[in-house]
Amino acid sequence: MSPFSQVGLLLVHTLGGLALLIIMLRFLLQLVRADFYNPISQFLVKATNPVLIPLRRIIPGFGGLDIASLVLAYVVQVIVYGLITMLKGYGIPLNYLLIWAPLGLFVLCMNIYFWGMLITVIASWIAPGSYNPALILINQILEPVVRPVRKMMPDLGGLDLSPMVVMLSLLVIQALIVGPLAIMLNVPNFIPMYVGF
After folding, report:
1. 3-state SS string over the chain?
2. What is the pLDDT of residues 106-140, one digit of tens each?
3. What residue segments make up the domains of the chain, in order of their start?
4. Cα–chain center distance at 31
5. pTM, whole model, 2 decimals?
6. Bridge partner residues of 65 (DSSP)
7. Fewer Cβ in 10 A, N or C end of the chain?
8. What is the distance between the alpha carbons of residues 109 and 74, in angstroms, rounded to a whole number?
């Protein structure tokens, strides 16, 4: 592979991953009705509004879901996969990219939750109870997933193991569902199931 292709791949992975992360976080923020006055929320809104506002005129929301954000993430994922295959020198038909993109977005969403859990667990050890806009936002995104697990857990005297249970569950889902699905859909090894992490 030429140095220009390597630089191109680096840029596609970095910029595509950042764009996908921003769009998926915007979707998740609206899904959990997070605090939109948080400075990070404001950044995500301002970064995505130029594309999402016109897109919402065409694609309305449904049942509290921001469908326009999902469609935008899907299109960006297809473009990223297309650029990766082009830079790698493979001529993969568009229909394969269209099929692989939802799996990539699913894995990205799982990684957001996994790394968010890890960040909150580490932050709870280092700086418990501290006010940080990023930590508050991560907790707002994670709470709907952690709350049901926390309710089922026995009382351990103030020790909350529910994030560990959720993290382990995410890893099991990746092993039991994502891996076999990637094999079934013939996703080649050079196509990352997630971009940016």
Report:
1. CCHHHHHHHHHHHHHHHHHHHHHHHHHHHHHHCCCCCCHHHHHHHHHHHHHHHHHHHHCCCECCECHHHHHHHHHHHHHHHHHHHHHHCCCCCHHHHHHHHHHHHHHHHHHHHHHHHHHHHHHHHHCCCCCCHHHHHHHHHHHHHHHHHHHHCCCCCCCCCHHHHHHHHHHHHHHHHHHHHHHHCCCCCCCCCCCCC
2. 999 999 999 999 998 888 888 777 788 888 899 89
3. 3-184
4. 13
5. 0.86
6. 62
7. N
8. 12
